[in-house]
Amino acid sequence: MSLLLLILSVILFSVFLSYFFWKIKWGTLPDNSPRVLAYHKVTGFEFGGTWIPPGRFISQIDHLVDLGFNFINEDEFIAVIEGRRSGNKKEILLTFDDGYREFLFNVAPALKKRGIGALIFLVTSYIGKYNYWELNLPWRRFKHLDWDEIKGLSKMGFSFGSHSMSHRDLKRLNPEELRDELILSRQRLSEELHEEIKSFSYPFGRVNSRVRDETRRAGYRVAFSMCPPFSNSEINPFVLRREGVYIIDNIFSLKNKLSSGTLFWIEDLKGRFINGVSVLTPLIKKYF
Predict the structure, then answer these.
(1) For the chain, what are the domain ranges?
(2) N or C: at which end does the chain have fewer Cβ atoms within 10 angstroms?
(3) Angle subtended by helix axes 175-193 and 147-155, to nearest 10
(4) Hey, which CATH number is domain 2-287, 3.20.20.370, 3.30.470.20, 1.20.1560.10, 3.40.50.300?
(5) pLDDT for 169-210, tens place per residue?
């Protein structure tokens, strides 16, 4: 019995220690800022953690609407970040990284029916191609949207941003490679879509001060990471926070991600751990 009490005491102490460390280092989200959700694949089973079944995705969206959340578009979100309008924690910007073709069938019709927009980040060297930048695991080859599909989605009201040219870890690139990833991808998207490309999403959420500054110089107005290293109350236009949604998430965890409530700290630490592990993809691709 004493051993059990000791184990429970150690567990409780570890939980409290983790909470106080999180409270001091990161803290809660600001109430005057829209939340940003980051999805990847909305599809059937694959070996990986960044997918979610279509039925669960639609259920999540409907549940958030029932809870009184208001979905905003890219321009409305940027207007808040640039101080041209006020925002609040009941607003959500939907984002999708990588631009998988499944979006066309599993996401676009459901969002269009509900009058909800989304910001899709494209990897320009992989337009219309399979995702060979990912790990070579079974059932993990997915095709990216092609230009005709992208232009069709644009006419439906969906907006697009850059996710670089080749989905490499930008922190590991030399200055010339970094500028190419940022500038050439933006130019290509602008030429094809005939519009300003305002937003950038860092591959794997990886960013440092050098990458951030080059992104600003490349002409973007905002750039998204996942869990920035600074306090959650701080808003940096070029290191914006997003809440990743993965196969392990459900309605309960989604609500905690979007709140500043009691259990938000657990979701924050979970997101930071997942984002930290994502660095293994480019490392394994490089060495194996």
Answers:
(1) 2-287
(2) N
(3) 60
(4) 3.20.20.370
(5) 999 999 999 999 999 999 999 999 999 999 999 999 999 999
